[in-house]
């Protein structure tokens, strides 16, 4: 069911490189480490995973922060191996959104790194608390051996930023129109990490945003992120091989506008799916498009 993880080290000075599947732990170019004293490693569970959710290890010289914990226990164990191979002390696990693919792997990570604090925004913690039982009841039987040993609910983050070796990593969006949909900003790398507002290389999940205002707010958030002029963008969800840069912001904004335009014209969900596939014939995640289309055309309720 699962494929081997993709390890994608991100070195800004040297550009993107990609290690082959199951390669030895990746290293970041010395120039990038010297310039910023931080670097990133991105874990992706591969194209056959149930959810194409990313996890990012932000590394300093001695310590590290993990952003997001994966969905299945087997992928969380691969993530544990990546963290251990880094040789860094994991101080913090930050959960960037309240859907289960972001946090179901926490039990595996907590067992491996009991010293690491596990935090999320108040909005994310509330979302997890309100939905965890239903999510586990729905997904648990489908996960088999990957089901979490227990649900771990993060502590509420005190403040609006993480700290790593003296560098402040702020959350972007807490003071905006959708404080439940934020990303992490790494200023020294000009990197956007995690969250649900940005997608790359696959159909954008639209079922959770069902009103014109929600789409307007979303576009406002993306505009704010574009104003940061990021060099690296690691979305919470992306298809393997997608460019991890500012093009993801433009893609997501364009997709939202296209979805709205085609929804207004389509007579039903089948017509909407056909129109969006005509616009984006190569995107992964068709099942996401199909469900989003049914919700948009009033053919099903979500959640």
Automatic annotation (TrEMBL):
It comes from the Bacteria. InterPro entries: Metallo-B-lactamas, NDM-1-like, RibonucZ/Hydroxyglut_hydro. GO terms for molecular function: hydrolase activity. The keyword Signal applies. SMART domains: Lactamase_B. SUPFAM superfamilies: Metallo-hydrolase/oxidoreductase (SSF56281). Residues 52-237 form the Metallo-beta-lactamase domain. Residues 1-23 form the signal peptide. This is MBL fold metallo-hydrolase. The lineage of its organism: Bacteria, Pseudomonadati, Pseudomonadota, Gammaproteobacteria, Lysobacterales.
């Amino acid at each position: 069911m699962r494929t081997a993880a993709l390890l994608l080290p991100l070195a800004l000075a040297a550009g993107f490189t990609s290690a082959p599947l199951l390669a030895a732990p990746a290293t970041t170019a010395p120039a990038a480490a010297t310039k910023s004293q931080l670097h990133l490693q991105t874990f992706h569970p591969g194209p056959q995973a149930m959810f194409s959710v990313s996890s990012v290890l932000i590394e300093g010289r001695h310590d590290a922060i993990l952003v997001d914990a994966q969905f299945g226990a087997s992928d969380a164990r691969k993530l544990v191996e990546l963290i251990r191979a880094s040789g860094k002390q994991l101080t913090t696990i930050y959960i960037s959104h309240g859907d289960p693919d972001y946090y179901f792997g926490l039990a595996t990570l907590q067992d491996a790194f009991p010293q690491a604090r596990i935090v999320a925004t108040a909005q994310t913690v509330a979302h997890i608390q309100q939905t965890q039982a239903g999510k586990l009841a729905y997904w648990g039987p489908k996960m088999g051996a990957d089901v979490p040993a227990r649900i771990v609910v993060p502590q509420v983050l005190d403040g609006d930023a993480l700290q790593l070796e003296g560098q402040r990593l702020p959350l972007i969006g807490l003071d905006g129109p959708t404080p439940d949909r934020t990303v992490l900003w790494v200023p020294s790398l000009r990197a956007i990490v995690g969250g649900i507002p940005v997608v790359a290389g696959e159909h954008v999940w639209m079922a959770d945003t069902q009103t014109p205002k929600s789409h307007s707010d979303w576009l406002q958030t993306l505009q704010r992120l574009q104003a940061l002029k990021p060099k690296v963008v690691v979305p919470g969800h992306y298809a393997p091989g997608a460019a991890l840069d500012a093009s993801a912001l433009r893609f997501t904004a364009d997709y939202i506008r296209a979805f709205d335009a085609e929804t207004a014209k389509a007579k039903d969900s089948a017509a909407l799916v056909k129109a969006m596939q005509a616009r984006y014939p190569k995107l992964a995640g068709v099942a996401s498009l199909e469900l989003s289309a049914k919700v948009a055309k009033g053919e099903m309720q979500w959640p």
